[in-house]
Amino acid sequence: MIKPTKSVAMVLAGESLPVLERTFTTVDLMAYGAATWDWHRVHYDIDFAWAMKLPNVVIDGQAFGALFARAVVDWAGPQAFVARLSFKMKSMAFAGETLRMQGEVTQIRSSTVIVAQRLTSGRRLVSEAETEVRLPF
Fold this sequence. Notes:
Layout: E1 20-23, H1 26-36, H2 46-51, H3 61-76, E2 81-89, E3 98-109, E4 112-121, E5 124-134
Antiparallel strand pairs: 1-3, 2-5, 3-4, 4-5
């Protein structure tokens, strides 16, 4: 069964989104590189990453945006529309790390809900985002 989409009337400022956790493997990153045409070796070649003094292959920053968008749509429902997503990368993340996305509704403007999001790996801040999602009334 498809989950219903939230309406603006169902959302409160300060509401937390469900936590989303994701661990990327090297295989995941290779597939992501294929899907996005990003073939930089740092995302799949462990020997190359080690030569650059990195502990593992690097999770592509575009994947952070995908996690932010997925978390909002999972929370809001299938008819939600991500109107704007802006994020800043704060640190690198590597294959094998578990990324944890947390979010909170900060504003409600007409049919638009603003969500502040944080992506962490352990105690380290990886990325922050502000996402605007349009919901039905």
